[in-house]
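Worked example (supplementary).
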Amino acid sequence: MTISVIDYGMGNVSSVVNMLRKLGDEPSLVRDPDGVARADKLILPGVGAFDNAISRLSALGLIEPLRAHVEARGNPLLGICLGMQLLCRGSDEGTQAGLGWLNTRAVHLSALDPAGRLPIPKMGWNSIEIVRRMPLLEGLESGARFYFAHSYFVPNDGSEAIAATAEYGGRYAACVRSGIVFGAQFHPEKSHRFGLQLLANYCAL
Amino acid sequence: MLRTRVIPCLLISNRGLVKTERFKQPRYLGDPINAVRIFNEKEVDELILLDISATAEERAPDFDLLTSIAGEAFMPFAYGGGVQTLEHALRLFSLGVEKVVLNSAALARPDLVSEIAALSGRQSVVVCIDVVRSFSGRYEVASKRGRQKTGIDPIEWAIRATDLGAGEIVVQSVDQDGRMRGYDVEIVGRVAKAVTTPVIALGGAASLQDMKRAVDAGGAAAVAAGSMFVFHGKHRAVLINYPQRAELEEIFGEDLA
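After joint prediction of all chains, the assembly is encoded as:
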């Protein structure tokens, strides 16, 4: 199964491609509905603002094809960073509706740290705690370190979707899973061997 | 909490890896791609790459070279030098750079900071403030790779840059650059107190103890260094190096799960 990375003008597509190549994969970039319709396995990266990302996906006509990919064909999708927040119903960062596979909303990090002691955006390496085993985390243990760079987060609501958590004043979702849809709040493509392992797991699904 | 990021800051000039002292006398050290590969193996927290010839030559970033370098950088990667337009920034992001570092261009046209932040998020915009200290102890911002004093107060500029959308502020001491006598902790501390964004100390570090001081006394959220990671020994032999994770944790504490 080949991997396709959605290139919708929202950030670090090349970093993801670079790491997939290091794993020996030759990912394709998809930018249009046909590309999504032909994809076996998708990665939805994302850096930037929530509404902007949804608008771009919508303008490129990708929202319905993404639904068909996941809901009709049952094919895997991995959202990275903002790409994971797009899986939610919405975000406090904007007013647009998200893709809705996660029944929650993204919230500003200040909610975890009302005293305002921690710099926002959160930027840096953080260990994750694995709370629910899933294929994406195969070969990884609690304490695995990943690079985070974000201002909004998906709450740790204790639901079955939460696979791993990270900490920033309070605990929140680092990795999620809803059926065949996966999300990573951190950047596996920038997280050395830990990220390589996670992406290798996704390739092997 | 997050362990303090320890960031090698590499300078390139005419496609070669160089190191300066007080922003002058760039010494040629080798091939930048090779250096990035080594830092990759050493699992560095992050990397900053500054092309110090780009602004001087009034040219755009060397996108070909940066494509090759980004292809080897499996860690967060920030780039500065000649980033003058939103298009430059977007092109850098699309080839695998996480953050652009703005310096002279942000001073000349502060709106560039907001334009990039609005489109790509504040975490993708770093404003680097080069600071010079006068004999009387007054600090001011320098532009054009230290050649032009601006009369601007670094603290005011840091606050403004944060308001404009900078996600991080690098405070670089021109006077301490390459001297390996420790950071100018005073100005790092003043800026860190004035802004809510993470401040990265740069210029002068020789040891993890220097870095620890910038964090404890200066309130730096992250620390960067050039000489310390490219030189070895008192004769400054070229050797790409980076502390073991255990050493970093001993000095800065472990990050908690």
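Two points are worth noting when inspecting this output. The longest helix of chain B spans residues 154-164. The interface with chain A takes residues 1-3, 5, 40, 43, 45-46, 70-71, 73-77, 93-96, 98, 118-124, 167-168, 196-198, 221-222, 255-257 of chain B (CB under 8 Å).
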